[in-house]
C-alpha cells in the first residue's frame, strides 16, 4: 500500500487508548499520498477526531507510529509539524479584525536563518501572505471588517485562511462545515474542493456525512469503532463495499442474508442468482444490492417478483418498496408502477455484491457461579451445565455427577460460551434478562434487522437477528433460552 516516493503521511499500527475500556483508535494503518484529498468517514465516536489530533500532534498515540515524509514524528510537538488544522468551531478571535485574525500566527512565527537567530517576518511579508490567503478564500477586501459581522460561511473561510496562511504541507479539517446550514454547506464543499486544487497540498478531511465524503474526496477511509473498515475511492466504496457496515453506512442498500449454492451461484430472497464472486459452496454470506441496480420488468419476465407496497417521489427518482414474501426490496427508478401491482425484477450478476458474513455467532469467555448459572457478557444466565460432561446430571446439592459417578464442583470453572444469532431476544425491562445494554447498531436485512447491543461495564457485544424495529440507544436487557447457551470447558494445559 505504502509508496515511499509520494507518501506524505503514514500511520503504522497506530492506537490511542484513553482508559481500560476506551480504545478510540485501534491498530490503524493508513498511508496518504502528497496532494491527496482523503476523508475519514464514520459515525460519531468512531475515532475520527482522535486520529486527526494525533496527526496534528495535539494527542499522542499509545501504540504505533506516525511518519511524515518517511520520518517518525510521533512525538514532535504540533508547532514543529508542517500541518495546520481547521476545526468545526472556528475559534476566531472576536476582538480582532479579519486581517489580524489571519495574521495572528504569522506574527508569532520565527523563520530559521542560517547562522543567525530565527527572525520575525517583516510587515511586508505578512501583508503579502495574508492577502494571498484571503484571495484564496475569496475574501479579499475584508481585511478591516470585524469577524463578528461575518456570516457563518465567511467566518469559516477566515478560519481556513488562517490555517493556509502558514503554507502547511497538510491541512486537517475536522467537520469544518458542520455548523453551517445545508445550502451554505453545499457551496463550501465545492469551494473547498477548488481550494484543494489551487493549493495543491494534502487535505485530510473528517466528516460523518457520507454524501460530503463521496462528493469531495479522492480517497475515503471508512471507520467504525476505532477500526478502518475500508479504504477506497468514492466509486469503490460505493460500488464494492467490503462488508455490511460499509454498505449500510454508504448510500441506500438492500442487504440480505444469503448462502452460496454452487460456483458463482448465490441464494437469497428464496431464489438462486448468478453472481461474479467466488465463495466456497455452502458458505453463509451477506448480499448487498443498490436500489438503482434492481430493474423492474413486467410480471413474468423477471428473475423474481413481488408486490409493490409503496411508491414515494424523491425529486429525481421514485423510491419503490416491493415485498416478496417476508423480504422487502427497495428500488430507485425514474418510472413508477402502481401500489398493489405484481412486478418482475432483474439484477445483473455484477450488481450483486457478496461479502463474507461478519459474525456467525457470539462467543464469550465465561465462568460458572455458585448457582450453576453462567456469567459472561457482563451478565448472568441460566444454563445447562450437564452439557460440559456428556451423560452427567446435577444432584440436589448442586454438584455435577459425571456418568462414571465422579462429583464435580463447577463453581468458578471457566467456560467458552457460544450463542447463535437467532437465539437472543430483547426486553425493554432492563432487569428481565441476564445482561443489559444499549442498542448501538441496527442494520436492515430485508425481512429482519441485525442488532448489536453493547453492555456498559465491559462493552461486551451481543449480535442477533430480530424482526421488530427498536430504536438506536434504547436500553434493553437480553434474554437467551437456557438450551441455546453452548458451553465448552476451557482447556487447561495439562489436559492438552
Ligand atoms: P469522532 O471524532 O469520530 O466522533 P472521537 O475521536 O472524538 O470520535 O472519539 C472516539 C472515542 O474516544 C469516543 O468513544 C470518545 O468518547 C473517546 N474519547 C475521545 N477523546 C477522549 C478523551 N480525551 N478521554 C476519554 N475518551 C475520549
Ligand atoms: Mg469528531
What shape does the CA trace take?
globular
Helix content: 10-25%
Classify the oligomer: single chain
- What would you give as the CATH superfamily of the largest domain? P-loop containing nucleotide triphosphate hydrolases
Number of strands: 35
Q: Report the radius of gyration as a whole number of Å.
A: 28 Å
Q: Catalogue the unreliable spans.
A: none
Instruction: Output the strand order for the largest sheet.
Output: 6-9-10-3-11-12
Total of helices: 8
Question: CATH fold name of the largest domain, please?
Answer: Rossmann fold
User: What is the typical, i.e. mean, pLDDT?
Assistant: 91
- Cofactors, ions, other ligands: adenosine-5'-diphosphate, magnesium ion
Domains counted in the coordinates: how many? 3
β-sheet strand percentage? 35-45%
CATH-derived architecture of the largest domain: 3-Layer(aba) Sandwich
Q: Helix/strand-derived class?
A: alpha+beta
For the record, what CATH class of the largest domain applies? Alpha Beta
| Separation, N- and C-terminal Cα atoms | 41 Å
Largest sheet: 6 strands, mixed
Amino acid at each position: 500500500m505504502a509508496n515511499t516516493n509520494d507518501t506524505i503521511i503514514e500511520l503504522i499500527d497506530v492506537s490511542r487508548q484513553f482508559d481500560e475500556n476506551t480504545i478510540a483508535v485501534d491498530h490503524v494503518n493508513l498511508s496518504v499520498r502528497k496532494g491527496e484529498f482523503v476523508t475519514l468517514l464514520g459515525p460519531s465516536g468512531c475515532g475520527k477526531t482522535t486520529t486527526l489530533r494525533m496527526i496534528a500532534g495535539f494527542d499522542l498515540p499509545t501504540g504505533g507510529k506516525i511518519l511524515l515524509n518517511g520520518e517518525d514524528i510521533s512525538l514532535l510537538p504540533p508547532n514543529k509539524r508542517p500541518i495546520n488544522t481547521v476545526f468545526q468551531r472556528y475559534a476566531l478571535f472576536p476582538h480582532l479584525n479579519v486581517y489580524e485574525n489571519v495574521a495572528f500566527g504569522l506574527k508569532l512565527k520565527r523563520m530559521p536563518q542560517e547562522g543567525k537567530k530565527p527572525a520575525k517576518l517583516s510587515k511586508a511579508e505578512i501583508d503579502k501572505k495574508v492577502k494571498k490567503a484571503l484571495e484564496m478564500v475569496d475574501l479579499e477586501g475584508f481585511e478591516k471588517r470585524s469577524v463578528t459581522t461575518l456570516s457563518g460561511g465567511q467566518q469559516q473561510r477566515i478560519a481556513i485562511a488562517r490555517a493556509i496562511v502558514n503554507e502547511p504541507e497538510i491541512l486537517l479539517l475536522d467537520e469544518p462545515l458542520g455548523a453551517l446550514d445545508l445550502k451554505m454547506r453545499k457551496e463550501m464543499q465545492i469551494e473547498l474542493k477548488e481550494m484543494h486544487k489551487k493549493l495543491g497540498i494534502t487535505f485530510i478531511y473528517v466528516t460523518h456525512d457520507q454524501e460530503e465524503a463521496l462528493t469531495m474526496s479522492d480517497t475515503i477511509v471508512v471507520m467504525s469503532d476505532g477500526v478502518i473498515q475500508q479504504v477506497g475511492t468514492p466509486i469503490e466504496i460505493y460500488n464494492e463495499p467490503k462488508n455490511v457496515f460499509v454498505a449500510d453506512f454508504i448510500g441506500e442498500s438492500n442487504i440480505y442474508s444469503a448462502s452460496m449454492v454452487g460456483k458463482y451461484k448465490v441464494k437469497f430472497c428464496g431464489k438462486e442468482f448468478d453472481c461474479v464472486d467466488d465463495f466456497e459452496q455452502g458458505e453463509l454470506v451477506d448480499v448487498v444490492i443498490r436500489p438503482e441496480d434492481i430493474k423492474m420488468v413486467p410480471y413474468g419476465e423477471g428473475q423474481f417478483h413481488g408486490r409493490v407496497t409503496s411508491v414515494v417521489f424523491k425529486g429525481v427518482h421514485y423510491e419503490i418498496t416491493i415485498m416478496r414474501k417476508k423480504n422487502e426490496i427497495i428500488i430507485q427508478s425514474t418510472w413508477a408502477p402502481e401500489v398493489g401491482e405484481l412486478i418482475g425484477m432483474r439484477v445483473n450478476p455484477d450488481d450483486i455484491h457478496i461479502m463474507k458474513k461478519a459474525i456467525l455467532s457470539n462467543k464469550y469467555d465465561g465462568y460458572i457461579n455458585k448457582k450453576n448459572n453462567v456469567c459472561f457478557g457482563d451478565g448472568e444466565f441460566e444454563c445447562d451445565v450437564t452439557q460440559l460432561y456428556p451423560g452427567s446430571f446435577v444432584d440436589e446439592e448442586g454438584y455435577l455427577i459425571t456418568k462414571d459417578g465422579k462429583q464435580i464442583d463447577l463453581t468458578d470453572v471457566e467456560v467458552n460460551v457460544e450463542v447463535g444469532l437467532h437465539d437472543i431476544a430483547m426486553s425493554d425491562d432492563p432487569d428481565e434478562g441476564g445482561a443489559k445494554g444499549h442498542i448501538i447498531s441496527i442494520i436492515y436485512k430485508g425481512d429482519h434487522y441485525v442488532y448489536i447491543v453493547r453492555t456498559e461495564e465491559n462493552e461486551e457485544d451481543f449480535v442477533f437477528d430480530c424482526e421488530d424495529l427498536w430504536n438506536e440507544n434504547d436500553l434493553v436487557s437480553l434474554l437467551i433460552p437456557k438450551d441455546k447457551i453452548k458451553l465448552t470447558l476451557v482447556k487447561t494445559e495439562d489436559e492438552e
